Amino acid sequence: MSTVGGVDGAPEFRDLRTDDLPLAWTDAPEPGEDTEIVVVVVSGSVLGIGAVDHAITPGRGALYGLVVHPDHRGRGWGTALIGELERRAGARGDTEVYLEVEDPRAERLYERLGFRRIGTVRNPTLRRVLGRGL
Ligand SMILES: CC(C)(COP(=O)(O)OP(=O)(O)OC[C@H]1O[C@@H](n2cnc3c(N)ncnc32)[C@H](O)[C@@H]1OP(=O)(O)O)[C@@H](O)C(=O)NCCC(=O)NCCS
User: Which of 5, 67, 89, 129 is the most buried (most CB within 10 A)?
Assistant: First the structure.
């Protein structure tokens, strides 16, 4: 059990439902057959969202659209959500995951979780591409 900004409880993960909307996404994922959109829920409140696409590159899960509600950042929910997206990638046969990042703080989080820089991409601004094996 943990206490987070007035929200108590252990995190649960489930697929996004239409009644979760509207959510403040900075980078809204496009739902599709090969894309799983996952929310982290604590005591009935949706605190974060992220997606994994299994089809862009076979064997590599693309993580994207990761956002935690501004009132609940820095308390481990982003880390938990990344763990769940990695678990789902592994369950679909991916052996690696990767993502694009622009924000240096977010990059530090990914590096702490074992991601390493594997390239850069202009999409549309210059972003680092980070990846890790599962
Ligand atoms: C990045 C993000 C999803 C992490 O979720 P979180 O629940 O805050 O993450 P955790 O609590 O597990 O980890 C904390 C780490 O996240 C990063 N972080 C914290 N607040 C952040 C913010 N406002 N923006 C970006 N990264 C942040 C930092 O590395 C932080 O570690 P630090 O406190 O030692 O600096 C969340 O901060 C967020 O939604 N940021 C804005 C959107 C964004 O940048 N998404 C990533 C796109 S690649």
Answer: 89
Alpha carbons 2 and 112: distance in angstroms, whole number:
22
User: What is the mean pLDDT, run by run of 10 residues, along the chain of 134 residues?
Assistant: 57 83 55 85 90 92 94 94 97 96 96 97 92 98
Pocket of ligand 1 (CB under 6 A): 26, 66-68, 73-79, 99, 101, 103, 105-106, 108-109
Task: Specify the CATH class of 3-94 in words.
Answer: alpha beta
DSSP 80-98: HHHHHHHHHHHHTT-SEEE
